[in-house]
Design goal:
The protein is α/β, with parallel strands linked by helices. It has a domain at 4-78. Helices cover 31% and strands 38% of the residues. It is built from 8 helices and 27 strands. It has helices spanning 4-14, 20-39, 44-50, 54-72, 80-132, 137-154, 162-185, 241-249; strands spanning 194-201, 209-225, 232-239, 255-260, 275-282, 286-287, 289-315, 318-332, 337-340, 343-350, 354-358, 364-368, 372-376, 379-387, 391-395, 398-406, 410-414, 417-424, 428-432, 438-442, 447-451, 457-461, 466-470, 477-482, 487-489, 500-505, 510-514. It has a 27-stranded mixed beta sheet that branches. Helix 4 (54-72) packs across helix 5 (80-132). It is elongated.
């Protein structure tokens, strides 16, 4: 026999039909061994000549098979030491067989993932070249390295080309490492855009509006300018080439509508840094719309008159003062929002940041999750506070109607005039020196009320503790009851009058006490 094909034909004939799978595995091993020897310069005939005869290999296989049967038999004539040794060897072969099977099954999947990764990086490079006129550093490196891995995975399927595939794989690896070194030394691994400055002036103040959105870090400021000037916008910082072209080719009459640094999967390796945006608004100008949508940034907004005031911020801080608007909407996930001396019907949604609103005129709705809300000196027809687990404090406010609800947080209302409804599930409610109709509901949390003036109130709890401190000089009729809890009422003998307080708890303690200075 001078060829491997003839050798394998004879070897296959020596195996039983039910053992053909084992033959196929042995065939793969022999072909791999042949490929390695051929790379070393040996001829196929020399390799085949050194192999044991097909009959000997088959005999060895069936001898091992017989020993395996002896190990599993009820009685054995084989010595214990030999059985243990054969068992260990058999287990090793089984593990090797299992490993080969796993690799064989996973190899196509691994190849598919590597090809998908290579395609993504290649598209990334082409897209950045066309749109940004920049060669993407990290994707280019990863493209070379992924190509090297792909070649290593497929080389076992092309035994005759194995040597050539190894050369290409090594070349791709060297190129990838070389590009990594060059781009690292020149600080070009990440795309940083280019430095840019632009002033955009609107045609007139009539029906002017600003809308600006960005997923990058932005510092935004508004500046009030002379009424003789026109509204304008200034952008400054590092920007992607595609965004610069968007600014340059934009049409601006009496409206600016810009979306810059829009986040997408092909900006994974882009880092432009913080930019600066300034709005110049002539004194007395009433904008149709003022909208900011940012992923992160710091905002300082002063002296704005607009029909619609809209802020959508993921992280960062907002400071706004003297904002006059018909409607206002502020959404902040993690930042702090401070609004002072403004007039508008405002809706605020905050997740975990701090919200401070002082000296505001207009209806107010706040939805909070776990943050802190501090509200002072408000004048409003309607205030709605919805709180999950954070803390809400309302002080020195006038309103026709207040509705404050919480799940597990704290609601504190002090020196506020109006019809007040406060409800909670498990949190704490504190009412102090309020005037108007007062209704407090709590399921299991404590209720504490401190009153100097007379007030009509209804207080109820399922299992929470209720404590009411009342100035004895302004005594009102208090009706208190509890199912199984302890009760104490210092005002039980006060005769009926214009003002009355009804306190009820099913299982909690109730204490109506005289306030002591």
């Amino acid at each position: 026999m001078s060829t491997m094909e003839e050798y394998l034909d004879q070897l296959k004939a020596a195996f039983a039909e039910e053992d053909i799978e084992e033959f196929n595995e042995l065939k793969e091993d022999l072909l791999e061994q042949l490929a390695v020897c051929l790379e070393d310069g040996q001829t196929e005939a020399e390799v085949v000549a050194r192999l044991a005869s097909p009959q000997e290999i088959a005999a060895d296989y069936y001898a091992d098979l017989s020993l395996d049967a002896a190990i599993n038999a009820k009685t054995s004539v084989v010595p214990r030491e030999e059985i243990q040794d054969v068992f260990i060897q058999t287990q090793k072969k089984r593990m090797q067989k299992l490993l080969k099977t796993v690799i064989k099954v996973l190899k196509p999947l691994i190849l598919l993932l590597l090809v998908a990764e290579f395609s993504f990086f290649l598209i990334y490079i082409i897209k950045e070249l066309l749109e940004e006129k920049n060669l993407a550093g990290i994707p280019l490196v990863l493209c070379f390295l992924t190509a090297a891995l792909i070649l290593q995975v497929v080389k076992s399927w092309f035994i005759e080309k194995k040597k050539l595939i190894n050369i290409f794989s090594t070349a791709a690896l060297v190129l990838g490492l070389g590009v990594l070194l060059v781009f690292s030394l020149t600080d070009r691994l990440m795309y940083t855009g280019r430095q840019y400055y632009k002033e955009i002036e609107l045609s007139s103040s009539k029906n002017a509006s600003f809308s600006f959105d960005s997923d990058a870090d932005v510092e935004i400021t508004t500046v009030e300018v002379s009424s003789t000037e026109k509204p304008s916008l200034m952008v400054k910082g590092r920007f992607k080439e595609s965004d610069i072209q968007k600014i340059e080719k934009g049409s601006y009459k009496n409206k600016v509508d810009l979306t810059l640094d829009e986040e997408n999967i092909f900006d994974t390796f882009t880092k432009t840094g913080r930019s600066e945006v300034m709005f110049f608004i002539p004194k007395g100008t009433i904008l149709d719309d003022f909208h900011l949508g940012l992923s992160q940034g710091d905002l300082r907004l002063l002296d704005i008159q607009t029909k619609n005031f809209d802020l959508d911020l993921t992280s960062g801080d907002v400071y706004a003062k003297n904002i006059i608007a018909d409607e206002g909407h502020v959404k902040s996930d993690f930042g702090d929002v401070i609004i002072e001396e403004s007039a508008m019907n405002l809706a605020v949604k905050s997740d975990s940041g701090k919200t401070v609103i002082t000296g505001m005129l207009g209806d107010l709705t706040i939805d909070g999750n776990s943050g802190l809300s501090i509200l002072k000196f408000l004048r409003s027809d309607n205030i709605v506070l919805n709180n999950h687990s954070g803390r809400m404090i309302l002080e020195d406010t006038e309103t026709k109607k207040l509705k404050a609800t919480a799940t597990d947080g704290q609601v504190i209302v002090k020196r506020t005039k109006g019809d007040l409804l406060m409800s909670n599930e498990k949190g704490k409610i504190v009412s102090e020196e309020n005037k108007g109709e007062l209704e407090i509901e709590n399921i299991s949390g404590p209720i504490i009320s401190i009153q100097d003036s007379k007030v009509n109130a209804k207080v109820s709890s399922h299992s929470g503790f209720i404590k009411w401190l009342q100035d004895p000089a302004q005594a009102v009729k208090v009706t208190a009851s509890t199912g199984t809890g302890e009760i104490k009422n210092d005002f039980s003998k006060v005769p009926s009058g214009k003002y009355s307080i009804d306190v009820q708890s099913k299982t909690g303690d109730v204490k109506i006490l005289k306030k002591v200075e």
